[in-house]
Amino acid sequence: MTITSALLGGALLGVVGALIAVPVGAAATLILNRVVFPKLENR
Question: How many domains does the chain have?
């Protein structure tokens, strides 16, 4: 997911977008894995 976000950010905003998209993508992955998916499993 992080590579996908870097490619998408690079396509939209160039090199700066790719650099910004990497930590944002990593944070989104972390939030999904630690918060969202466990709550869905408990349903």
Answer: 1
